Amino acid sequence: xxxxTLKELTRILESRxxxxxxxSYVASLYSKGLxxxxxxxxxxxxxxxxxxxxxxxxxxxxxxxxxxFHSMVMLAELDLSSDDILDELARRFGVSxxxxxxxxx
Length: 105
Description:
Elements: H1 3-15, H2 25-32, H3 34-54, H4 57-77, H5 82-92, H6 97-103
Helix pairs in contact: 1-4, 3-4
C-alpha cells in the first residue's frame, strides 16, 4: 500500500463521518462509537493472527488488510491519520529498537 493509497483512504474515511449510517459501512461504525470500532480492530487482529499461525498467505493478506482498514477507521474517529503513523515510523528510522523501547519507560 503506497502512501497515496493511505491518503486516499484517509480522505474517504473522513468523508464518511457525516454520512448516513444506512448508506455506508464506515458511517455505521462511526455511529456506533469508539467501542464498536475498537471491537472491530480487536476482531480483525485475532483473525490476522490466526491466519498467520495457519500460514495461509492469501488469508494473511486479506485479514491484515481488514486490520489496517479498521485501524484507520479508529484513527479517523480519534482525529488522527495515516500521516501521523507514517511520521512516527519515519522518526524511528536509524533508532535501535532496543533504544526506542527503553525511551518509553
